[in-house]
């Protein structure tokens, strides 16, 4: 042990130094406070013994300086004093002293105190070492998380989260709190958003998010709908997550063309549909969280709402209502309800909710484990933009091909053939650039054949709110009676130099949709009648649209060409 | 002790009681409560009379108990939940997997 003795009496200092050297310690000596500070700086002793009364600088001042110089290092300072009054002794301790020895000192007490402080020093050192180790490991973990976050971003790219009609708050490291938020445009238009909250924290929560991102973006790009996505995500998570781990989540699909929103909520707090007309509809969790039920028991039923431009859909993880104020009280779901009830027609629900949260918690930054997302429903053009970034080569992929695909019986109710048909068309590079248009053509043809041809639903119903729900109830009921029915797609593609022609013929086993003349001649932008609108979309996108048979067969011709080389075209 | 157990008089029902906060800190104690039962158990009852709070890791522990008790054929009852606890169970629709009374 290295000790510093500061004592102005040479005799006393020598006795003390000799005593301590005999006990096996290294001793440095100083004859006043100023010298003591200088020696302390030079030799960094472990323990300091100070006479309280010294010339030049007294022990109190020296103690203050030494403690300041030591910083976070623990340097016991023991006063050697003949100051007998309690007040003076208290002064010594207030100046930063840890203890004192009364003159004349007892050898036994001195030795015992030095040993006690030696043990304390060792304890302090090991605590400091552990603290430094924890600090290093924590820094390392944060660096790893930042790195992992970058990897995650590459897999789970942000999709269309930066679209102007989507507002969200998600902490940059929210993934390590188990929160995930994905958004994607569907090929034919419309937006899919998934908000999930995995049980647990850290790496296990983050790992589960990777396959969900792959399923979500992969299937969304291929044209699958929300119910298919949620079914697949559940199965994937059920396979990979251990029992006891799951993902509370909500998935919704906003279709601006049809004016519908489909939502599936399993385990998240109530989502909200905030209508422009003042109506507020809760979107409660009606399902078990994802990854709990085996595929055969999973219920992918979506809740269906009508929507109009200017409506908002709000989703949040439980971190939002569970945000606490300084007293530890939670914001609560009622506060969410209240904020949404009170906002005016020009207020954005996102801003109102975030403002309320900040006012409640008193913190400018929300906690890491809360995610809030808000989508504004926008009017959506029938045609999505041509993706200019898609591969340009006309040389790869099949040019000339023919394909017939027939969906029969129960499959009409259970199966969505659009992703498969889109996939076949996307093998042609020139069509890949127009996946949105092709998907729109296929889906308009299919829903027309299914809903009006096979199921004989009248689009008249969809004009009113009651009719709208009746329409979808009937649709659901009649889908159980599709035995003996079929829808047949005949696709034919031929290359025309740097261009090509796709013919799609869609026939159904129904009796034909009768007001076909009317539909064909209806003003394309009337926007009142869906079947008319659907037909308008077909006419706008395709070169030719013809109705054959008794009206149970529609054939379209769709031409595409690569833009002339060196010329930038904007579609 | 935050987790305690008792057997019904006929020994066939294992009642697990959780005191205070039912969260990750209870993990080991909750597992021990049912994993080391010496005699066969026909029905498990999770008594939440004295549970003030329940988080998602507790939901995970309930799923583990259900799995231990036989999964889909398990007989696991959750009883005496306060309103907050009940709300958390119903947001996750756990009444589809457990009988909650």
UniProtKB/TrEMBL annotation, chain A:
<dbReference type="InterPro" id="IPR003594">
    <property type="entry name" value="HATPase_dom"/>
</dbReference>
<dbReference type="Pfam" id="PF07228">
    <property type="entry name" value="SpoIIE"/>
</dbReference>
<feature type="domain" description="Response regulatory">
    <location>
        <begin position="2"/>
        <end position="118"/>
    </location>
</feature>
<dbReference type="InterPro" id="IPR036457">
    <property type="entry name" value="PPM-type-like_dom_sf"/>
</dbReference>
<feature type="modified residue" description="4-aspartylphosphate">
    <location>
        <position position="51"/>
    </location>
</feature>
<dbReference type="Pfam" id="PF13581">
    <property type="entry name" value="HATPase_c_2"/>
</dbReference>
<keyword id="KW-0378">Hydrolase</keyword>
<dbReference type="InterPro" id="IPR052016">
    <property type="entry name" value="Bact_Sigma-Reg"/>
</dbReference>
<keyword id="KW-0597">Phosphoprotein</keyword>
<protein>
    <submittedName>
        <fullName>Response regulator PleD</fullName>
    </submittedName>
</protein>
<dbReference type="InterPro" id="IPR001789">
    <property type="entry name" value="Sig_transdc_resp-reg_receiver"/>
</dbReference>
<dbReference type="InterPro" id="IPR001932">
    <property type="entry name" value="PPM-type_phosphatase-like_dom"/>
</dbReference>
<dbReference type="GO" id="GO:0016791">
    <property type="term" value="F:phosphatase activity"/>
</dbReference>
<dbReference type="InterPro" id="IPR011006">
    <property type="entry name" value="CheY-like_superfamily"/>
</dbReference>
<dbReference type="Pfam" id="PF00072">
    <property type="entry name" value="Response_reg"/>
</dbReference>
<dbReference type="InterPro" id="IPR036890">
    <property type="entry name" value="HATPase_C_sf"/>
</dbReference>
<dbReference type="GO" id="GO:0000160">
    <property type="term" value="P:phosphorelay signal transduction system"/>
</dbReference>
Automatic annotation (TrEMBL), chain B:
<protein>
    <submittedName>
        <fullName>STAS domain protein</fullName>
    </submittedName>
</protein>
<dbReference type="InterPro" id="IPR002645">
    <property type="entry name" value="STAS_dom"/>
</dbReference>
<dbReference type="Pfam" id="PF13466">
    <property type="entry name" value="STAS_2"/>
</dbReference>
<feature type="domain" description="STAS">
    <location>
        <begin position="3"/>
        <end position="101"/>
    </location>
</feature>
<dbReference type="InterPro" id="IPR058548">
    <property type="entry name" value="MlaB-like_STAS"/>
</dbReference>
<dbReference type="InterPro" id="IPR036513">
    <property type="entry name" value="STAS_dom_sf"/>
</dbReference>
<dbReference type="GO" id="GO:0043856">
    <property type="term" value="F:anti-sigma factor antagonist activity"/>
</dbReference>
């Amino acid at each position: 042990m290295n000790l510093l003795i500061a004592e102005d009496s040479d005799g006393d200092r020598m006795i003390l130094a000799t005593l301590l050297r005999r006990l096996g310690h290294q001793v440095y000596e100083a004859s006043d406070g100023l010298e003591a500070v200088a020696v302390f700086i030079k030799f960094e002793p472990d323990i300091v013994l100070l006479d309280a009364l010294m010339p030049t600088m007294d022990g109190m001042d020296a103690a203050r300086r030494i403690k300041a110089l030591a910083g976070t290092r623990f340097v016991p300072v023991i006063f050697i004093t003949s100051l007998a009054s309690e007040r003076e002794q208290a002064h010594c301790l207030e100046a930063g002293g840890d203890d004192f020895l009364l003159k004349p000192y007892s050898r036994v007490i001195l030795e015992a105190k030095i040993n006690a402080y030696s043990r304390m020093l060792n304890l302090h050192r090991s605590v400091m070492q552990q603290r430094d180790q924890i600090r290093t490991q924590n820094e390392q973990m944060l660096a790893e998380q930042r790195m992992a976050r970058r990897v995650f971003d590459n897999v789970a790219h942000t999709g269309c989260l930066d679209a102007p009609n989507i507002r969200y708050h998600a902490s940059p490291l929210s993934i390590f709190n188990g929160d995930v938020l994905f958004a994607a445009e569907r090929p034919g238009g419309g937006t899919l958003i998934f908000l999930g909250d995995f049980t647990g924290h850290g790496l296990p929560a983050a790992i589960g998010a990777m396959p969900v991102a792959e399923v979500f973006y992969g299937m969304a790009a291929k044209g699958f709908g929300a119910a298919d996505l949620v079914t697949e995500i559940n199965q994937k998570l059920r396979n990979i997550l251990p029992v006891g781990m799951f993902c509370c989540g909500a998935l919704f699909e906003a279709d601006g063309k049809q004016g519908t929103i489909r939502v599936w909520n399993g385990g998240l707090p109530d989502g909200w549909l905030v209508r422009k007309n003042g109506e507020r509809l809760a979107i409660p969790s009606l399902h078990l969280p994802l990854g709990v039920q085996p595929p055969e028991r999973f219920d992918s039923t979506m809740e269906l709402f009508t929507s109009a431009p200017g409506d908002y859909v709000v989703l949040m993880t439980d971190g939002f209502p569970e945000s606490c104020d300084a007293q530890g009280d939670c914001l609560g779901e009622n506060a969410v309800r209240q904020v949404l009830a009170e906002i005016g027609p020009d207020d954005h629900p996102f801003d109102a909710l975030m403002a309320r949260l900040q006012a409640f918690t008193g913190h400018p930054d929300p906690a890491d484990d809360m995610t809030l997302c808000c989508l504004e429903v926008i009017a959506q053009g029938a045609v999505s933009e041509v993706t200019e970034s898609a591969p340009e080569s006309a040389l790869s992929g099949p040019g000339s091909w023919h394909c017939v695909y027939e969906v029969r019986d129960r499959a009409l109710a259970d199966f969505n053939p659009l992703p498969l048909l889109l996939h076949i068309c996307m093998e042609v590079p020139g069509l890949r650039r127009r996946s949105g248009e092709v998907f729109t053509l296929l889906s308009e043809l299919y829903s027309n054949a299914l809903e009006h041809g096979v199921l004989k639903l009248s689009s008249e119903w969809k004009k009113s709110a009651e009719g709208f729900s009746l329409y979808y109830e009937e649709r659901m009921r009649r889908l159980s009676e599709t035995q003996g029915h079929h829808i047949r797609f005949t696709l034919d593609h031929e290359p025309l130099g740097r261009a090509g022609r796709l013919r799609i013929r869609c026939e159904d086993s129904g009796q034909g949709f009768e007001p076909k003349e009317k539909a064909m001649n209806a003003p394309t932008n009337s926007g009142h009648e869906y079947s008319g609108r659907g037909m308008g979309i077909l006419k706008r996108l395709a070169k030719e649209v013809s109705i054959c048979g008794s009206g149970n067969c529609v054939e379209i011709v769709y031409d595409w060409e690569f833009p002339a080389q060196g010329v930038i075209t904007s579609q | 002790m935050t987790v305690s157990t008792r057997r019904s008089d006929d020994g066939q029902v294992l009642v697990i009681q959780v005191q205070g906060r039912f969260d990750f800190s209870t993990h080991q104690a909750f597992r021990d409560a049912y994993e080391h039962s010496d005699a066969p158990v026909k029905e498990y009852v999770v008594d939440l009379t004295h549970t003030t709070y329940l988080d998602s890791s507790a939901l995970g522990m309930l799923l583990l108990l259900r799995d231990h008790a036989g999964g889909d054929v398990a007989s696991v009852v959750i009883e005496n939940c306060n309103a907050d606890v009940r709300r958390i169970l119903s947001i996750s629709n756990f009444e589809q997997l457990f009988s909650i009374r």
